Amino acid sequence: MEEVDKIILHSLRQIGCDIDEDVTSLKQFDTEMIVKSAVCCLDLIQPNLGLPHILPQNMAAKYRMGQLIAQACMDNGYPGDVGYQTFLYSGESDIRKVLMFLIEKLPKEQEKFVHEPTGPELILRKIRQKVKEELTRPCLPRACSDLGSPQSFLTYSNIKETPKIAWKEFCMNDLSSNMMDKKYLIPTILTLHSRAILAKNRPQLHQSKPENNKINNIDKTLLTSNFSKEVTRGNWKPPIAPRPKLKEKTTNNTTEDDQTWSESKKEEDILSKEIEELVADVQRLKSKKNQILQDLERDQFNLCQMKEKNLLRMKILELLPDGENNLNKYQQVIDSASQRLVSLANQWEKHRIPLIEKYRKSVQVQSDKTSETVKKAETAKSLGEKRRELEIDLKNKDKLLSQLHVENEKVGKEVNRSAYTRRILEIINNIEKQKTEIEKVLRDTREIQKEINTLSGQLDRSFTVADETIFRDAKKDETSRKAYKLLATLHSDCDQLVAMVQDTGAILREIRDLEDQIEKEKSKNIAANLERIMADLNQMKNESAQLTAQLKLKQQQNS
């Protein structure tokens, strides 16, 4: 781990972290140096984070800052467990993992990150930007700026509930141009504009009427200079058009239509009642049909049973006239069957003895194969554990190799990289050798696993054949029954033996895991961390006592 620590220290110094040259390992890091290194890395990863580089003296602030750093690491995707204790009461291995992760997350040289100022610099920058925006705005008099404020006026959207006819009457009769309220200013201008356009088009439509010419002259006068003066003073009032009248619509319903509607309603009620009755009749007939079908099926089943019974009785009645001869025939058939059974038993005795001998030999061979299988299973378990250890070691070495490549890319061209290059090449050669050994172990493990699977399959098939062979005679022969019991006992004993071997391997793996955990706990300097925790606890008690005393003093002064 010395090489890893050197790489981490070199990376921290390159990003501007103030670390003395005397520091050569992470063991020499104290809490302040750990926090400073983590904050320097996080400032480059997240420029807007704004964490202080100096650890505060107050214990509550310390815990809060540790929690913020831990949360930032988790937000950036740290895979392990991290908390305030990782930075305040951490071990060497935990800090190494965290710093390696943060160094991996650092931006590359080709990625340009703009460092955002924090604290007073950020406030001054915002003030300068605000002043610049105010200076770029156009300078307007105060009277002009008042006209820029919004003024409410009467529009059609403000009276959605009013009918169109009423709104038209209001505009034509009640809305005059001399209103002093600001909200009627735009409607008045729109009214004057519409009347001016109408006056312009009137001579073309009604040139023969002198009254229209008079109105046209009046409208032209309104569009001259007096228009602006009168509108400004509020004295001008246009002529009000006559209010339009709405035509009343009346609807009368005749008596004949009412009678026709009542008759059709009655016919509809009668038809609906008849339909409901027909639907009820259909449902009733369907239920009756289902009941009849069920009775028919039950009667057919009973008929089939009665036919079978009648057939049996007919056969018995056919045999009754010649009963003695039929009994003799049946007796002869039974005697011949018993003689055949005796002959078959004698033949089985001739074949049973060599089969038993063959079975005993197969059991002996199978027991030898079982012991060999157990040995190979133990070897496979040990090789599997070794393979897993080598795989973990290979992953760690690959990860270290990738980190070294990243660090090698970060180092400038002017830096002498021969020592790092030589060390990296040595690590690569060692990794390749270990990779070759791991592949060899994996091949051996696969071959042993295949052989174990083959032997297990042969064992299962042999037991199945022996079990079927002996079980056929176990019901009749006492020796076969005992042999079957012994076979079952042997099979269960073999299973127990294999299970014990597997449990032994699992226990050995647990022992190794516990030993590794013990070594890790020993490397965490628990005693030193406990001393620091006790010191921080005493400091917190003192701070709490001081705050309590200040609170009591303040309460006394207020009372």
Automatic annotation (TrEMBL):
<dbReference type="GO" id="GO:0097602">
    <property type="term" value="F:cullin family protein binding"/>
</dbReference>
<dbReference type="InterPro" id="IPR048348">
    <property type="entry name" value="CCDC22_CC"/>
</dbReference>
<feature type="coiled-coil region">
    <location>
        <begin position="504"/>
        <end position="557"/>
    </location>
</feature>
<dbReference type="Pfam" id="PF05667">
    <property type="entry name" value="CCDC22_CC"/>
</dbReference>
<feature type="domain" description="CCDC22 coiled-coil">
    <location>
        <begin position="227"/>
        <end position="524"/>
    </location>
</feature>
<dbReference type="GO" id="GO:2000060">
    <property type="term" value="P:positive regulation of ubiquitin-dependent protein catabolic process"/>
</dbReference>
<comment type="similarity">
    <text>Belongs to the CCDC22 family.</text>
</comment>
<dbReference type="InterPro" id="IPR008530">
    <property type="entry name" value="CCDC22"/>
</dbReference>
<keyword id="KW-0175">Coiled coil</keyword>
<protein>
    <recommendedName>
        <fullName>Coiled-coil domain-containing protein 22 homolog</fullName>
    </recommendedName>
</protein>
<feature type="region of interest" description="Disordered">
    <location>
        <begin position="233"/>
        <end position="265"/>
    </location>
</feature>
<feature type="coiled-coil region">
    <location>
        <begin position="424"/>
        <end position="451"/>
    </location>
</feature>
<feature type="domain" description="CCDC22 N-terminal">
    <location>
        <begin position="1"/>
        <end position="107"/>
    </location>
</feature>
<feature type="coiled-coil region">
    <location>
        <begin position="268"/>
        <end position="299"/>
    </location>
</feature>
<dbReference type="Pfam" id="PF21674">
    <property type="entry name" value="CCDC22_N"/>
</dbReference>
<dbReference type="InterPro" id="IPR048349">
    <property type="entry name" value="CCDC22_N"/>
</dbReference>
